[in-house]
Design brief:
alpha/beta, Rossmann fold, Oxidized Rhodanese, domain 1, 2 domains, eight-stranded mixed sheet, five-stranded parallel sheet, elongated, binds zinc ion
């Protein structure tokens, strides 16, 4: 602390040589000094670590982290980042808190049910640490807003649960050169990696595209809150390692850490950079962003009349074999919903609209949700299903081409 003499001395100090009275006040205002002392006290348990120290704490205070999703992963990650004093934290989530979230999304309380998650998380995190800047974005991350949001932060935390969002996070991170901390959980398994950091691989080096087998989400497969808690906490630790950058730290760049919590057996796998990666092997300005919302209820609907007029669309019947055998739309392909749910996802064209139908419309919507999570961007559900098609008397247009799948 630099001390400077001031002419006015409310509590004068007599110097040894008796020549003058001076008082010493620091250049910093008193309130600011007290804040610094409080900060030091708040973070003293981590400052005392030789790997962190005052220097590391300063880096943490100057760092900014954007967390995509305040769910099972985002909640613990945010708690530890905010508690550690990361100076600027952003939270992106369009969803609202519901009762089924409380089992694992530990930021939220019963009285926050119905509130937007980003806003509710900010409220709770502000109560934990009011000295940092926390911003809530009550919106869905998409190909339009992602770039602008990412530019405002140093590190991105991926707390999402679907391939479309993970590919978008990866592609934007590579495009504008930000590291991101990836994680994924399913049942008792978890995995964490740091992508696009220090010349390491990106997510698409590992998964160039969504798997062709259907991967259920947490709502379908189930998850224990503590599993999400451990993995989200590991994400916070990786972000702090990147921020502090001590020589002894080895962030999970080029590595995938996996753990099976049945046995606590964990592995550290090497992830080489894929020189033919569809994202990071390209020039940055050639990376195009795509996003397919996984939000339930946003599957676009078409009427039978619109479906009949759509010459280029691929129409898929998702009913079961007996229903298909009893009558179906001419030119339609048959892929039963039960087949999709068992994990068999056929190769479908990506250059045309896909229209799904079932008997009345409900199963078509479910099938569309499955295809959207697999990265098919242009999927529609025919409202009212086959029954509505039969009662619609508009003439069908002859298909220009017959599509094979
Ligand atoms: Zn890559």
């Amino acid at each position: 602390m630099d001390l400077v003499p001031i002419p006015y001395a409310p509590l004068p100090i007599k110097l040894r040589d008796n020549r003058q009275y001076v008082n010493y006040l620091p250049k910093q205002p008193i309130i600011s000094i007290m804040q610094d002392m409080n900060k030091k006290q708040r973070y003293e348990r981590q400052i005392v670590l030789p790997e962190i120290g005052q220097k590391g704490q300063k880096k943490i205070s100057n760092a900014s982290v954007l967390c995509i999703g305040a769910g099972g992963l985002g909640c613990p990650a945010l708690l530890y980042l905010v508690a550690a004093g990361v100076g600027h934290v952003g939270i992106v989530d369009f969803d609202t808190v519901d009762e089924t979230n409380l089992q694992r999304q530990v930021l939220f309380t019963v009285d926050q049910i119905g509130q937007n998650k980003a806003v509710a998380a900010k409220e709770r995190l502000n109560a934990l640490n009011s000295e940092i800047k926390i911003q809530a974005y009550a919106e869905e991350l998409n190909d339009k807003n992602a770039e602008d949001l990412f530019r405002q932060y140093d590190i991105i935390i991926d707390g999402t649960d679907n391939f479309s969002a993970k590919f978008l996070i990866n592609d934007v991170a590579v495009k504008i050169g930000k590291p991101f901390v990836y994680a994924s959980i399913l049942g008792f398994d978890g995995q964490v990696a740091v992508f696009n950091y220090d010349g390491g691989p990106c997510y698409r080096c590992l998964f160039p595209e969504a798997p062709k087998t259907y991967v259920p989400n947490c709502a379908e497969a189930g998850v224990i809150g503590a599993v999400a808690g451990m993995i989200g906490t590991a994400q916070a630790m990786e972000a702090l390692k990147i921020i502090v950058g001590h020589d002894s730290f080895q962030p999970l760049a080029g590595k995938l850490w996996t753990i099976d919590m049945h046995s606590m057996e964990n592995k550290l796998l090497s992830l080489p950079k894929n020189l033919d990666c569809p994202t990071c092997s390209q020039a940055k300005d050639k990376i195009t962003l795509q996003y397919s919302s996984s939000v339930c209820g946003v599957i676009p609907e078409v009427t039978p009349e619109q479906a009949k007029k759509n010459e280029g669309a691929l129409i898929i019947d998702v009913r079961e074999t007996e229903e298909w055998g009893a009558g179906h739309i001419h030119d339609a392909k048959h892929i039963a919903l039960s087949t999709l749910m068992q994990g068999t996802i056929p190769d479908l064209p990506t250059d045309c609209e896909i229209i799904l139908y079932c008997q009345k419309g409900k199963r078509g919507e479910h099938a569309a949700q499955i295809l959207k999570t697999q990265g098919y961007l242009n999927v529609n559900n025919m409202v009212g299903g086959y029954e509505a098609w039969l009662s619609d008397h508009s003439p069908p247009v002859e298909k220009k081409t017959s599509r094979n799948i």
